[in-house]
Amino acid sequence: MFAHYTHDESYVPPINDPHAYERWEARTPAEISLEEGWRAAIPVHAPECDATFTRLYAPYNVLFVVRDGILRTELNNDGRIDTEGLSTCPSCEELIDPLRAEGSCPWCDAVLPNRQPTGGVTLVTGGAQR
After folding, report:
1. CA distances (Å), 101 to each of 12, 45, 63, 65, in order?
2. What DSSP letter does each residue of the chain carry, written as one string?
3. In a 10 Å sphere around its CB, with 0-12 CB exposed, 13-18 middle and 19+ buried, how is residue 97 labelled?
4. Sign of the torsion formed by the C-alpha atoms of 3, 28, 36 and 96
5. From CA 60, how far away is CA 55, in angstroms rounded?
6. Using one digit for the tens of pLDDT, what is the confidence trace for 45-69?
């Protein structure tokens, strides 16, 4: 199974200025900054992007592309990502990483079900401690 955790979640790589900022503003309403979008995005595997790291900002279907340690650009996600290990929020229908979601959808804040299929297994959360 592919590990979606590729680096420290708080880390924002150096940004290719001005190209990355221009692409972010062109592809989103940009109500949040590029850096905030990166932090909110979920790590995904996108082998066709020729990238070191890729992240998906699902509300706008934007893929952040990091090559050689620099956030180079953002692409429209056209289905090139590997969705193994991801689930879909039943409320907003966006892709989520159930291991990072902590009980609610990061995009719409809907409460997620206790059972979520992901990558061929079912993730069950909650339950009493023994």
Report:
1. 20, 18, 19, 22
2. ------S-TT----B-TTHHHHHHHHHS--SS-HHHHHHHSEEEB-GGG--SEEEEEGGGTEEEEEETTEEEEEEE--S-SB-TT-EE-TTT--EE-TTTSTTB-TTT-PBPPSEEEETTEEEE------
3. middle
4. negative
5. 12
6. 888 888 888 999 999 999 999 998 8
Strand partners, 96: 87
Convert the pLDDT of each residue in 68-111 to its tens digit.
889 998 888 888 888 888 888 999 999 998 888 778 999 999 99
CB 88 within 8 A of CB 95: yes
Q: Are the C-beta atoms of 80 and 48 separated by less than 8 Å? A: yes
Tokens describing residue 110 = 């809907």
